[in-house]
Design goal:
This protein starts with a helix and ends in a 7-residue tail after the last helix. It has 171 residues and is of the alpha+beta class. Strands 1-4-5 form a three-stranded mixed β-sheet. Strands 2-3 form a two-stranded antiparallel sheet. α1 (2-60) packs antiparallel against α3 (121-135). It has four helices and five strands.
Length: 171
């Protein structure tokens, strides 16, 4: 009778250890999925910023443009049929990101364009229209693109007097 009590305790400890292990694995998988979704969001925003910046620089003939994109992806619904445990996919290795899981739909997107103050109003309208087209926004939703104007600092040529008086210190 003593051996069966020890065996039952051992089974109970083993089942508790397995439950803890599986719950920790599910937590790690959820953390990896959260981290990968943030990384995917930042990569998407950065890619769109570079694309819009490149097109606007060519179209307006100036590099004095700052583009800031904010994209909010839709949350993916998990397919439970492929999970052998909650959050742990059966067909993929834990920690690997599949291409299909990184492709998400965008729920909301907005852009801020910071242009040089010298850019004309017609060029500002062109910039808004081009950015809306590149981001796939319909014409009636061009309000999601904010245009700000500012004076960009222009590089001054270096002279010998700059050695005696550092620039921007006593102006």
């Amino acid at each position: 009778s003593r051996g069966s009590g020890t065996g039952a305790r051992t089974m109970k400890k083993l089942s508790i250890a397995l439950a803890l292990l599986f719950s920790a694995a599910a937590g790690w998988a959820a953390e990896a999925a959260s981290r990968s979704s943030i990384e995917a969001k930042l990569a998407l925003e950065s890619s769109l910023e570079k694309r819009v910046q490149m097109v606007l620089s060519e179209a307006l003939g100036t590099g004095d443009i700052i583009v800031i994109i904010s994209a909010e992806p839709q949350e993916e619904k998990k397919k439970q049929a492929f999970d052998f445990l909650p959050g742990i996919p059966e067909k993929e290795k834990v920690g690997e990101i599949s291409l299909s899981s990184s492709l998400t739909m965008i729920k909301k997107i907005s852009a801020t364009l910071i242009l040089d103050r010298d850019i004309s109003d017609s060029d500002s309208k062109l910039a808004r229209k081009l950015a809306a087209g590149l981001l796939g926004l319909p014409q009636e939703r061009e309000d999601l693109i904010t245009i700000e104007k500012m004076d960009f600092r222009k590089a001054q040529p270096f002279t010998a007097s700059d050695l005696l008086r550092p620039p921007n210190l006593w102006n």
